[in-house]
Every structure is written in C-alpha cells, then in structure tokens.
Amino acid sequence: MSLPAPDLPAPPRRSSARTPLAGVAVVVALFVWALPDLALLLGYAVLLAYALLPLVGALERVRLGRARLSRGVAAGVVTLALVVLAGALLVVAVPRLAVEPAAGHPLADLAAGASDAVVAAARGLPLATVRGLRSFYDQLGDGRRACDGTACRFGGGEALARRLARGGAVGTVRCLGHCYAAPSFRDGDRVFARPAGQPLEAWLAGLDEADAPREAAPPIPRRALIEPAVVLRNLVPGAAPAGLAEYELPGPERILAALEASRLRGRGGAAYPTAAKWRAARDAAGAVRWVVANGDEGDPGSYTDRLLLEEDPHAVLAGMRACALVIGARHGVLYIRGEYPRALACARAAVEAARVAGHLGAAFDVEVVAGAGSYVCGEETALLRSIETSRRSRWCRGSRAARIGRPARRRAAAPRR
C-alpha cells in the first residue's frame, strides 16, 4: 500500500529585484572609486549578468509551471530596464565625477616627499595605483646612494659604500652615468665621482661625513670618430653649443628629404630607418600626435644621452621640434632618467629659454618628465607606460607601434601550403 506524498510547503521565493539592484550598487561604487575604461566595460558586463540571471530564473519557473509566462517576461523587462538606466546614469555621471589632474607627474610628487593620499587626490588616481608606483620605482627617496653599476663595482664601489655608511644609511643606484670616473655616488640633486688620476684611498679619505665633498664629478670625455662631427658637432674641442640657433629649421618636406638622404637609423638595436618611422607617424590616423624623446639610458658605460642633455640640450629639443613639424604634433615629452639630476635641470632650463624665445609654446611645447629608477623604462613601450603613470614592464607589440602609438595586434599567420 503506497502512502500519499506529504504536502510540503513550497520553498520561499527570492525577490528577483534584489539581485540586479545589488549589482547596480556594487558597480556604481566601483566606478566612483576607479573610473578607468576597463572597469566601465567590466562593470557593465556585470550588470548584464545580473539582468540575465533573474530572467533565466523566471523562465525556468515558467517552464516548471510555478509561474505564468507574463510574470517571467515582466521580470526580464524590469531588470533590462534597470541595466539600461544604470548605464545611462554612468555615462552621464562618470565624466562629472572624474577629477581633472593637475599639471606635472605623480613620480615627481612622490620624489618630492608627498604622501600617497595627497598624490592620489591631486592627480585623480586610485590610491592603489599610487602605492604601486611607490613600490615599483626604487629612486623616489632622498639620501645618499652609492652607484652599484659595473664600472663602479669594480672601481671601488663597495669601499665607497662602507665609507659613506659612517654618516648614515646609504642606498644603491644603477647607474649614474659616470663610468669614466668610478666610483660615484649621488647626494640629493648632485653627483660626485672620483677625479681622474686621484687614487681611490686618497679620495675616500677626503670625504667628510657631515658635508658633501667640494669637488663635483669631472667633465665627460668625448671624441668624434668622423670629420666633421655630427652628434658631437657642438661639443668637440673647439666647438660651442649652437643654443637657440638650432631651432632654425626648414619645412617638413625638406626635413623628411634630408632624413632619407642621410639614411639615419634608430640606435636602439633595430636600426629602423628614421625617415620611415616619421612618415608612418605622419600618415597615421588621428588628430592628436606626440613626440617622445627617450633619455633613459641605463646600460653600463653609456652616457651619450647625459652628455647631450647636459651640454647641448637645445639640439635635442630642436630635434623634437623637427619631428613635430613632420608628423604634425603639438605635444612633446622628454623622458630623462632620475639618476641624471643635472641633465634634468639643464633640460628644464633649456625648455624655459626656448619658450621665452618663442621656439616652444602654443605650436609645439615640451614637458620634461623624470624617471624614478627602473631599468626597463629605457625600452620604448615601458617608457610610454611610465609617462602615462603606469608601472611595470613592456608591451608585447607588433612592428607598427609608431603608427598607432599603441601595440599593434599581430595578425594570425597564414597557413602554409
């Protein structure tokens, strides 16, 4: 004899309206905190998911006979309407909530001693982003730092670090670009190196624990291997920096023709033709173009950039202006590694002098951005990310980055026949 099935009470129904409303609240809070484009896309995807889940649940109850079809359709319409309304509100609210960042760069703020919270508020950045910048770059603090590059390590760098440690904590830096006068160290905005011909022991003995040594770094040696000199035309013995005369440039077509005739190539390892790169940037789509000069050399024994930036900065700025004339740019960034304090000072002074003379300004202007101690930022795409207040490593990119300013996606290789 079979017993009748017990009449169990139906399980309580969950309100389908709580789920999408909770999702809307969470995503809106996320946008108010972060506001990046990626978060906007991900958040809207979450909203769609929250809209579809109640709709699927309502249709399932209709299939099982627990609800009418009209009820399921109504639930779906309500949730989709909430999604559309939330998306419209975000499109309107996000630009109004965004903070217009102040002029400058957060790395400079951190190097000046500003707190993470102050930098985040002034630059309109999430606090986590500012903390990531501080933890990634290793040259944001003050104090003495002994060079630990190859030349300084073999030239008495360990003995120098021990001598400096008598006066307090000493950090390390790689490298200060004084490989010809090793060892060297940095104290604030000044770099000191062993004078040529002076024994290491005598130089170390002359370092005072309280005061910095009076003699700064010796001059950079230079020699041109061709006549007449090209890169060092204003710096070889007997020559003088041309200064503001460097800005007397021909028209864009003549500049491009001169580049093609000279067969000038990039010196970063790929030897890419400079004229082809400038032409690609000129012909790229988009109204806003930028000229970026890479002054972040960190390889041992490399100090060519430092020589040019310290003693002939107008030649560098004039080269940027020539590129701007060809590609139609109005903005430029000169990125210089933070280990070169004198190069930074000389470049900024040259920018101000060029502005006063009318060579830089409304038509084309240059901002000097200081690095903060990251060897990888000498690579093109990592340098761009550092300028954009990002941290970390290089992009995986194709060969057309100059055309679009962003990594080009590699096309799938055609199948072999």
How does this structure look, described?
The protein is built from 16 helices and seven strands. A four-stranded mixed beta sheet has the order 2-1-3-4, with helices on one face. A three-stranded parallel beta sheet has the order 5-6-7, sandwiched between helices. With 417 residues, the protein is of the alpha/beta class. The model is unreliable at 15-19, 96-101, 392-400 and 404-417 (pLDDT under 50). The radius of gyration is 30 Å and the shape is extended. It has helices at residues 18-33, 37-63, 69-97, 106-111, 116-123, 127-136, 150-154, 157-164, 200-205, 252-262, 274-283, 304-311, 313-327, 341-357, 380-387, 401-404, and strands at residues 144-147, 171-173, 184-187, 190-193, 290-295, 331-336, 365-370. The protein folds into four domains: 18-97; 106-136, no CATH class; 144-205, Glutaredoxin, CATH 3.40.30.10; 243-404, NADH-ubiquinone oxidoreductase 51kDa subunit (Rossmann fold, 3-Layer(aba) Sandwich). Strand 6, helix 14 (341-357) and strand 7 (365-370) form a beta-alpha-beta unit. The termini are far apart. Helix 2 packs antiparallel against helix 3 (69-97) and helix 5 (116-123) crosses helix 6 (127-136).
In short:
By secondary structure, the chain is of the alpha/beta class. The chain is 45% helix and 8% strand.
The total count of strands amounts to 7
**How many structural units, i.e. domains?**
4
- The topology string of helices and strands comes to HHHHHHEHHEEEHHHEHHEHEHH
Instruction: Tell me the structural class.
Output: alpha/beta
> So, CATH architecture of the largest domain?
3-Layer(aba) Sandwich
Termini separation: 74 Å
Q: Can you identify the CATH class of the largest domain?
A: Alpha Beta
Count of discrete alpha- or pi-helical segments spanning 4 or more residues: 16
CATH superfamily of the largest domain: NADH-ubiquinone oxidoreductase 51kDa subunit
Q: Which ranges are low-confidence, i.e. pLDDT below 50, for 5 or more consecutive residues?
A: 15-19, 96-101, 392-400, 404-417
- The CATH topology of the largest domain corresponds to Rossmann fold
Overall pLDDT, averaged?
A: 76
Beta strand %: 5-15%
Enumerate the strands of the largest sheet in spatial order, edge to edge or round the barrel: 2-1-3-4
Helix content: 40-55%
